[in-house]
Amino acid sequence: MFEYSSMYLIVFLILLIAYLIGSIPTAVLAGKWFRGIDVREHGSGNAGATNAMRVLGPKIGFTVLIIDAMKGVAAIFLALLVKDAFTVEEQFVVFQLLLGAAAIVGHVKPVFAAFKGGKGVATLVGIVIVIFPEAFLICLGLFLLVFLISRYVSLASLTAGIALPIVALLVQDSILMPKLVFAVAVALFVPITHINNIRRLLRGEENRMIFKKK
Question: What is the CA radius of gyration of the chain?
């Protein structure tokens, strides 16, 4: 009984750590450190990498993007702390995904930034990198292609996210069910978090990302 209770406590603590990692408000901190502003009061009002690029510039924005993605990677790798406790691979994958989900919740509702964060897409990218490395590279290519043609980050993100389960099935001979469910969830999650962007795209009001030298 003690061993089971200890394991549940350890799992809870690891999930909490994953949430706290996700809660690191990278864009907010970058705005305050480098520009003396809160990015949530400018641009789209979002504390994500895209708004950071728009408000703080591409160099800071890309740095925010990388760090936010690494939050997802770090959360996933926390599962290695208790890997020996899992005898079935599917169970271990489920735990990895739960940790990733905790990091995304932290990014969207960060305890360190009054629970007002980003959309979680960059952190989600980090999770995808670990779970589907081959499919990620192809989806990244799709993202870049759509972005370079349209200059819409939202449209590129939607394309890459929706394509993930299809690409994953094409590049892998077999996929564990938890991973497939995750891929489908991504294809649903990205459009849901971009519903306002979709409306603006349909109305022709979405802002293009154009980098200008200051």
Answer: 18
